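Exercise 3.2. Students should predict the tertiary structure of the chain below and write it as structure tokens, then compare their answer with the key that follows.

Predict this chain's 3D structure.
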Amino acid sequence: MRVSLSEADKLTAAPPKAWAAVLVFGANTGLVRERADKCARAIVPDLNDAFRVSDLAGDALRKDPARLTDEAASISMFGGRRVVRVRDAGDALSDQFESYLEHHLGDTLVVVEAGDLAKTSSLRKIFEAAKSGAAIECAEDRPEDAGKLIRESLAEAGWKIEPLALDYLAEALSVDRRLLRTEVEKLSLYLGTAPKDGVLTLAEAANLVGDSGAVEADEIADAVAGGDVKKLDRLVTKTNETGASWGTALNATLRLFQRLLASAEGAAPAWGRSSFYEQRMQAQLSGWTRGGLIRALRILAEAEAQTRTTGLPEGAIAQHALYEVAGLKVTASRR
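Answer key:
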């Protein structure tokens, strides 16, 4: 079955017993992981329980097709329903999952994670058509999605927030769904219970998150888009010193270039024409051609995939890609 956007969170929190397997996929890798974790945790609260949770890579199943059935048919030594997690799945596994969904035995839930799958994807079609399976798409978060989470979290502590402050935080903290939740929790804890009629202003919001990893990742993305290699050098040094996540910086840059390409192709900004972020977007677009943006996206997307599949140092992969993309802007500016 195809799970609708409105039902996705409810069904991932409590997967129906009729589901033998669920495919969680999409461009929003943070949300894919969050929903996959939620599905698995609904069956096995402790995801580190080796007796009830098996973790498989997509490559392992391609090399050993029988392993999916073997793992799913296993019985926990101490009882309880089991979960089999399959990561980095793709259309190469379509035949295996089609057979599994038709002939599965037992009550194991197979939770499958995949990247962005087109509507023509055979794996996606199989799960959408299956009676014993489900497909849950995880689209990119919009600034308003991040804004809603921020506003609701602050409201629990009695805080209101200025519209411009909300715009700022939504943009600064929406690099990754997991990071967003972590940063909002930290922000709420720092603010504490609001005084009577407490309102968070733009200046206060900027001051509170000015040194956060999310903003630092945005600063790296801005430097890359602007071809500012000197600024990138300083931020690379700072990131290496603080131990901040290179994966987050890479994802922030990838998402910025996705927005830049969408803007270059005429898509309206998600935050509306009145937002001060549109002005920054237009400045970042200066000097970039559509072809250059597409090339940059390919470099960043390949690097992001390498951080997940090659086992090579994340920092080395990310830095090489970021400097390469910044170099594209420098080269274009000299022409």
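Discussion points: DSSP finds 16 helices and seven strands in the chain. The CA atoms of residues 58 and 89 lie 5 Å apart.
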